[in-house]
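Progress against Task 2.4 (sequence-to-structure conversion) is shown through the following example record, which the project officer requested during the mid-term review.
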Amino acid sequence: MQLIIVNNEQTARQFLEVHIALNKDVPGWIRPLDKDINQVFDPGQNKAFRHGECIRWVLQDDKGALIGRIAAFVNKKYKSKGDPGLIGGVGFFDCINDQSAANYLFDNAKEWLQARGVIGMDGPINFGERNNWWGLLTEGFKEPMYCMNFNPPYYIQLFENYGFKLFFNQICYGMPVKDQLMPKFYDRHKAIAADPNYRAEHITKKNLDKYAEAFSVVYNKAWAKHGGGKEMGKTQALALFKQMKPLLDERIAWFAYYKDEPIAIWLNLPDLNQYIKLMDGKFGLLQKLKFLWLKNTGYCKKMVGIIFGVVPEFQGKGVDSYIIVEGSFLIQPKTNYVDYEMQWIGDFNPKMMNVCESLGAVPSRVLTTYRYLFDRSAPYERHPIIG
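Structure tokens generated for the chain above:
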């Protein structure tokens, strides 16, 4: 076997090709957009390079065939609550069903990380935000959502046989869009709706500035203090909303307010992967025109829950039920969407898991974040429960 560092256009192309070669015949696989992978490793596009570095390899057999790949990265801003020291990461792992080949990839990543003072590695994770390319698919081997990892089942053994241990499970929940909500949702909604200080509204594209500011307020209060989280400014939120604008469906993105102060977000989007699976990894002019045509003809039948949360001082008061029921009044009667799936929730967040289950949603897939401590005698602990 030969391990080759990705350091030029040819090897960068091979880094994409090995994933295609090893997954193209796996049922449910959708080829990611080339640009979405490439930008992770582009210092001009990925802000994680400000606080870290990364390296990529491709693996060839003795005949020159591509049989694996892996990336390793260290980011000083990457932290989970209770970490015993600086933890690095591995991601974008692909490998034939051969433990010796997988071990070769993991060993090289480990050696590179150890040289940079790292005490362990999490994987498969992303060099950047946790909403993309995070976790190994361990249950629910079906079409992934946009920028979600997908792999054959045997990858589980490749990780666990090497010595990776479960750090936390990432659970996605799904349900049919038109399923009736449980009665308690309407009871809680009624109690909140009786107070004129509360209101809920869906996004309008012409007022993205307003909603970007509201998003940053709720996000910073509800999530920024969690392990690994950081505050989001209005400018950053506006850039995010502008990026989402072509895909945005105003009817399925909601905010709740109390006395005109934003207190809750329920942000959903059409599942972009329903379009991407027809693009063969490209997103040039022809693909963009195709996307617009498909979008305008109601091709996408699946909506995805991107983020849901209530600021701490309004949690436990029924605001979660209020915003969901307000949205359902508009979404359910006239919708093209059939399926609803929510982005992953860590099993360290039982409050949000309870919200999903109370909706009547059921687990649709599980991804797993693994951890490998380099000191094999060191005490090992799973991600702590939050809240």
